């Protein structure tokens, strides 16, 4: 029997936090670290322009689509065991990608990274849930986790720039091997095992259905970007996505062992947190994508300069996450998330003021700082709110849904905003044909501005949903129930 109470704190919990944060950083980095390396990898492996986006989406789709299954496996197979297997598999997949001699091998390796990341990430967050039971300590732990989740993407851009410029694009993948080895060695020493009791059967049909549905949806956006929204392939992909995702819901309703208990989604506090997470993921990854284009294509920054120029977002996240961890036990999650969402949207709106020769110090630096501050205020209460009232039996599933919403949002947001930007550029060219080479930058900037405006709208919609749906206050967040470690 699982005795539901507040156990004595585990003595190795802070060392375990370091291990979990290290592994989470590796997982988050791989969503963006290859972005800057893409031109070099594309040239070396002969990847076409149409196919190069799969270097990014193969990872995020496999990761986001299988996180739900990974959470259930972590719950019943053992969170420490799942964490270790995920880290080792991630290292092997990274080695395969780093040594790839053709495009198909690289795409497959990125997909495998997503598969093992889907084991690693939910196991880590579920371990935090059972390791930190005291409200103040839990807030600090989630602030570290939130800062890593929020700032890891920008760090990935910097690291990708350094490795691409001074070593080789392959090291953007190979660098994961030593990180994984260190994480596994420390986990074996400092991380305790925990698991839930009960039936250990898994919902494989649900996992396959939701993953294929998301792939079809992203592929639809990709085809719409190239051929138009009414193209047969685009419409067919969207139709297939709807059918598959509806089938997923039906499977979950009828399954005796669902991939994710639908009750986790319909509870308004968690449901609001998951919706907000999806929309923030879409806007955030879109911002990094188009900022990278703007820095390198329009302003002429080198890969390393572009990565360094993205650091203000990370700085803002780190500062605000520390503030949020102190305020959340006093004021609860909702005020922080609403404030954070509005501040992040303001930062995104500032980015819509860019021109072909904007100043970094007077516009790009403050805009990114504001964006980072807003995100930092949001991430800490978001992680905690998504797990409020979740028992030990479903801790892995609830944390997997949170991670999945961020990855799915990133995949869909990148595809959607790229389609919107491409359409905007084509429309601008149709209305104002280029008569001078200098106008090329103006068209590119116009498309980025449109994308930033849509990203800001996504953040504002997410904030409005938090205002309407979330009711949990500081007491609900401060009194979690978790099971004893065993």
TrEMBL record:
The organism's place on the tree of life at top rank: Bacteria
Does Transferase appear among the keywords? no
For whether the record's keyword set contains Transmembrane helix, the answer is yes
What keywords sit in the KW lines? Cell membrane, Membrane, Transmembrane, Transmembrane helix, Transport
Membrane protein topology class: Multi-pass membrane protein
Q: Which Gene3D superfamilies match?
A: MFS general substrate transporter like domains, Multidrug resistance protein D
InterPro entries, A to Z: EmrB-like, MFS, MFS_dom, MFS_trans_sf, Sugar_transporter_CS
- PANTHER family reported for this sequence: BLR6921 PROTEIN, MAJOR FACILITATOR SUPERFAMILY MULTIDRUG TRANSPORTER MFSC
- Identify this protein by name: Drug resistance transporter, EmrB/QacA subfamily
> Which species?
Pseudonocardia oroxyli
